[in-house]
């Protein structure tokens, strides 16, 4: 059946239906943009937009001179454990469960009376505590609080209430998997902004805005996967760029917050019209808490509140009370502080061991190390598997790169000193073996 439609969405739906019916199968080539535009008597840009929608949905992939083809339905990369593996898993990105405060005692204090339809969606005690927490970060500017089911939930809702399908979103490159997946699955167009040791680059952000980005999502500290944190100077320079785009939505995902050893520097300019600061509790109270607090300008908060109304969707008050109980408990707060020291200490120890073995690494902030390599990361990860390690290659986090990424992201905070020495030795051997294999193929 030929592809039909006049608008980009109609053309994309026609291809989608043929894929769902099995009339187009993985590997099948779609017509060239010129050929399909001529067949349908539409502008070529309409076909380009249709193919872009299909690419973002994961239904097709562009293969350069090989054209556009129906994609294999590969699983989307996610954080978490690799199931059914006998290898030592270094790719989880998870916090250490032994360092998450025990909620048992706090649970008994959070019951209280039932909360019914129509009541305020934010628990009063949590709102009071979080207002003070956020005020210290955002300063005197006016803001309102929103509570969501985690940082990704907040980002999805913020983008949905501001953007339309195919709008451009500036993302860090390499990028946090959840943010990248949220943008792609939402039908938005990711625009890569390079990240260096001081965070998102100024030239990269300017280029993304010049390309029409209507939203910017960035991590002010402990950027995942690189561990980079914004310096004061870099934050000021980024504010300068954003000051000329006051209606671009700026989202800061400060996911590591209470665990971070670095100061928080904001890129949100004074008087900016659309902004949000998100702080999740997942890294220090556990991913299963599914709780994040967002401070945003009043208009953005009002739009966000409409998507979290008291008649259908709100974060459980039991969960909010539990979060507040832990965040104000002296023992739990002390446990979070110990966890912060542990993560920083183990990352530093791992970086030292790897550097001693000839793989130079500079530890950043966060739960993992971003390890640069002289050869393709996938080749090294294959060699590590033969030595009993499961590592995450960096190309899963990359938005724009024709070459294989030359980084590994390693979660090492649960390794002993002996484990770190063995990992360092095995990684050095894996790099050497991958280099030898590459030379033999050349």
UniProtKB/TrEMBL annotation:
Domain HTH gntR-type: 5-73
Top-level lineage group: Bacteria
The entry's keywords: DNA-binding, Pyridoxal phosphate, Transcription, Transcription regulation
CDD domains registered for this protein in UniProt: AAT_like (cd00609), WHTH_GntR (cd07377)
UniProt cross-references to SMART domains, sorted A to Z: HTH_GNTR (SM00345)
Entry similarity comment: In the C-terminal section; belongs to the class-I pyridoxal-phosphate-dependent aminotransferase family.
Protein name (record): GntR family transcriptional regulator
């Amino acid at each position: 059946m030929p592809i039909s439609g006049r608008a980009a969405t109609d053309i994309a739906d026609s291809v989608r239906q043929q894929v769902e019916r099995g009339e187009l199968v993985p590997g099948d080539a779609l017509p060239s943009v010129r050929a399909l535009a001529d067949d349908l008597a539409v502008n070529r840009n309409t076909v380009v937009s249709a193919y872009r929608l299909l690419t973002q949905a994961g239904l097709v992939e562009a293969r350069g001179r090989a054209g556009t083809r129906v994609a294999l339905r590969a699983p989307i990369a996610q954080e978490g454990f690799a199931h059914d593996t006998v290898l030592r898993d270094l790719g989880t990105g998870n916090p250490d469960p032994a360092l998450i405060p025990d909620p048992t005692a706090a649970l008994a204090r959070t019951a209280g009376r039932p909360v019914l339809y129509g009541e305020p969606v934010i628990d009063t005690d949590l709102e009071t505590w979080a207002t003070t927490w956020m005020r210290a970060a955002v300063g005197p500017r006016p803001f309102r609080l929103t509570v969501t089911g985690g940082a990704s939930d907040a980002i999805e809702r913020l983008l949905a209430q501001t953007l339309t399908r195919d709008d451009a979103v500036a993302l860090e490159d390499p990028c946090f998997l959840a943010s990248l997946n949220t943008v792609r699955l939402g039908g938005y167009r990711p625009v890569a902004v390079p990240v260096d040791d001081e965070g998102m680059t100024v030239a990269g952000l300017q280029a993304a805005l010049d390309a029409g980005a209507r939203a910017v999502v960035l991590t002010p500290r402990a950027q995942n996967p690189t561990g980079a944190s914004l310096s004061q100077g870099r934050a000021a320079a980024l504010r300068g760029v954003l000051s000329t785009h006051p209606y671009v939505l700026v989202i800061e995902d400060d996911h590591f917050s209470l665990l971070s050893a670095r100061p928080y520097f904001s890129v949100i300019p004074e008087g900016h019209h659309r902004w949000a600061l998100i702080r999740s509790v997942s890294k220090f109270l556990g991913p299963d808490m599914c709780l994040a607090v967002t401070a945003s300008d009043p208009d953005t908060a009002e739009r966000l509140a409409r998507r979290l109304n008291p008649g259908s969707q709100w974060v459980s008050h039991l969960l909010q009370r539990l979060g507040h109980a832990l965040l104000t408990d002296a023992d739990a707060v002390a446990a979070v502080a110990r966890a912060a020291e542990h993560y920083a200490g183990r990352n530093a120890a791992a970086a030292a061991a790897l550097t001693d073995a000839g793989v130079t690494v500079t530890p950043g902030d966060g739960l993992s190390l971003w390890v640069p390599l002289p050869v393709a990361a996938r080749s090294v990860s294959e060699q590590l598997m033969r030595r009993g390690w499961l590592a995450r290659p960096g190309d899963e986090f990359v938005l724009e790169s024709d070459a294989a990424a030359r980084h590994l992201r390693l979660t090492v905070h649960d390794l002993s000193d002996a484990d770190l020495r063995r990992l360092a030795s095995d990684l050095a051997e894996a790099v050497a073996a991958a280099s030898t294999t590459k030379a033999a193929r050349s």
